[in-house]
Sequence to fold (281 residues):
Amino acid sequence: MPADNLASLLAAATARLKAAGSDTPTLDARLLLQAVAGLTREDLILGPDWPLMREQLAAFEGFVARRERHEPVSRILGEREFYGRVFMVTPATLDPRPDTETIIEAALAVMPKGASLLDLGTGTGAIAITLLAERPDATGMATDLSPEALAVAASNAARLGVGDRLTLLEGSWFAPVSGTFDIILSNPPYIPAGEIAGLAPDVRNFDPTLALSGGADGLGPYRVIASGAASHLGEGGHVLVEIGAGQADDVEAIFAAQGFQTAGRHHDLGGHTRCLGFNRT
Fold:
């Protein structure tokens, strides 16, 4: 990579990442360059002839090489923006996707004043923390099987100012939970186990399998959530779950068998059904 100005570095990195198969090579290169140089996008536009220091050049080369091996930019930088806030991500957590913002919008539309929420399989804490940040009168509880993921969630909650309103519990789904809630949410693992090997390397090699695999048919977590939700859902409460492509009918049937009725299908920006809402019949 030429040890030249910002413009030439950006062009060279973009070409490399395009050749490596990145769908967003220009964006990837820009974000990595901004990070090592400590600059904004406006800085890159206003100062394309600025040089980088030797240490910054070495760091940028390392970042680009990692992205060429399909490591996501968010994992290289250790953070991901979600619903306008920056969340720390680590190898122990799923990388929050923009599609998951669909469940945030759906939840905000039904959360009562002073709502209590339960987030199952919280990972980075993105769902629970975002909702608590958006609704300062709400309180929440979140569970995860991974103590490492819970540590990340705790750090994110503290940094984003909601740590005093979020209780984090280690355990599988409802196992460590007591009490009832106005809203129960989850972005569970929903990839059929046999399909994980065929996922894009950005996902397969860097998201934890624990956060991807939904069992043989991808629906195992929904069966657990549906069977346990009734005893933890307050009167008039709602359940919201993220789903994968083509799973809507199957997930609705799983919840219907447990006495729930569908209260809404919510679509992501691509027009796909991404979130299902349920309440008690």
In short: Residues 54-68 form the longest helix (15 residues). Residues 6-69 form a domain with the Helicase, Ruva Protein; domain 3 fold (CATH 1.10.8).
